[in-house]
Design brief:
Elements lengths: L5 H24 L8 H13 L3 H27 L4 H22 L3 H14 L4 E2 L2 E2 L7 H15 L9 H24 L4 H20 L7
Antiparallel strand pairs: 1-2
């Protein structure tokens, strides 16, 4: 993340905010499950299996599978359109968010969560290097680990004294998005998903412009 060029770094923070917004909507609307935080859903899966709460276990397991399906989708897109991968992946994210918003309008329920999890899994394919995800956008544990490592390095006199700042900003973007998502859910309920879809569409256009300008990314 700290070697990513400034336009893409700013886009990454915006994408993290989008993930936080969507995750907060999912968490506050449908029983404390997550759209992007699969560690949390995996914990819920284990706890539900251990306590024989089969309905919750089914929901958590389905969300994990849906997220992985989104990652697979983004990987296929990146390989199929390597020159336009960022815009194409974001277009898929936008489509999934629109479908989720439509489903929430017609019949709010688990199908909305599954579409949101797929969208968040897909979003993680925006930044890739050698076919692998360069850094996560929808889960921040790795960013916090790198933040701690870079802070330790700065305290011990490493040359890159401010290398921890991008990781902090990525985390802060996610948290800011979650705050906005919580407020939007309280004010508009599932209708707030249309804001997420609109933001994703705007980011799709931004990523396409950045790609046309020839700006690259590195982790």
């Amino acid at each position: 993340m700290h070697r990513t060029e400034p336009p893409l770094a700013a886009a990454a923070i915006a994408l993290a905010a989008l993930a936080g917004f969507v995750d907060a909507l999912a968490f506050t609307s449908l029983g404390g499950f997550f759209a992007s935080f699969m560690s949390g859903n995996s914990t819920r899966l284990g706890v539900s299996l251990g306590s024989a709460t089969w309905g919750n276990a089914l929901t958590a397991g389905a969300l994990v599978l849906s997220f992985v399906s989104g990652v697979i989708l983004s990987s296929v897109i990146v390989r199929a359109a390597p020159r336009h991968d960022k815009g194409a992946v974001m277009a898929a994210v936008t489509l999934l968010l629109v479908l989720a918003a439509v489903a929430a309008t017609v019949s709010p329920g688990p199908i909305v969560l599954l579409l949101l999890a797929a969208a968040m899994g897909t979003e993680n394919g925006v930044f890739t290097r050698d076919g692998e995800v360069a850094f996560g956008l929808t889960y921040l544990t790795g960013s916090l680990v790198k933040l701690g490592q870079k802070l330790a390095g700065a305290l011990m006199g490493d040359a890159e004294r401010w290398a921890w700042v991008p990781h902090l900003l990525l985390w802060a973007g996610f948290v800011a998005g979650a705050i906005l998502g919580t407020g939007a859910q309280a004010a508009w309920g599932w209708t707030a998903l249309w804001f997420a879809a609109a933001a994703s569409a705007a980011l799709t256009g931004l990523m396409a412009r950045i790609a046309r300008a020839g700006v690259g990314a590195a982790a």
